[in-house]
Amino acid sequence: MARGNRSAFDQLYQRNAGWIAARLRRRCEDPELAAEVLQECFLTVWRSAGGFDPRKNAAAWLWTVASSRLVDAHRRRQARVRTTGEPHESALTSASAEAEYMRSTLSPELADAVHRLPPELHAVLKATVLDGMTVRETAALLGIPEGTVKTRARKARHILREALA
User: Can you give the residue ranges of the RNA polymerase sigma-70 region domain (predicted)?
Assistant: First the structure.
């Protein structure tokens, strides 16, 4: 694909578009936006295929590209919102796609507890729970051993249980 082989791109798309689309729809309530992001993802992959390290996990790379495009799409959408008069401070910042998803699906207490997790635990929880990645995919995405993913996930669950008790 890095050499412009359209057949290789078609195979990559056929093998991965379904699961990426499903994950995008879980994180984005707007099906049209999710479809747009899917197309942007594969366009980005086509253009940057030469930079992909074949020793890395392709699925993790694809999901990283897709989730980044989703965040970009949410930011573009927020930027289009116009206010009249002096903007309120909250209008100057926009919530991430993840924050919007959590706000719409989790209780306020749980969303707050997740938000307060240390970054390394939050990253593992985001990849495994919100993005639906396996331990192996999460390890490849974050560049850490699988055992570390399991340990961090267990620690995150423990912290969340205590916060909600």
Answer: 12-79
Residue 8 contacts residue 21 (beta carbons within 8 Å): no
CA distance 131 to 22: 10
Residue ranges of domains in the chain, CATH in brackets: 1-84 (1.10.1740.10), 106-165 (1.10.10.10)
For the cut 60, the answer to whether the pLDDT of residue 81 exceeds it is no
Return the structure tokens found at 34.
Answer: 């999710």
Sorting pLDDT into bands at 50, 70 and 90, what band is 104?
low
- Residues with Cβ within 8 Å of 6's Cβ and at least 6 positions away in sequence, in order, are none
44 vs 119: CA distance, rounded Å: 27
Assign 88 a pLDDT band (cuts: 50, 70, 90): low
pLDDT at 31 over 90: no
Instruction: Say how far apart CA 70 and CA 162 lie, in whole Å.
Output: 32
Burial class (CB in 10 A: 0-12, 13-18, 19+), 74: buried
How far, in Å, CA of 90 to CA of 93, rounded?
A: 6
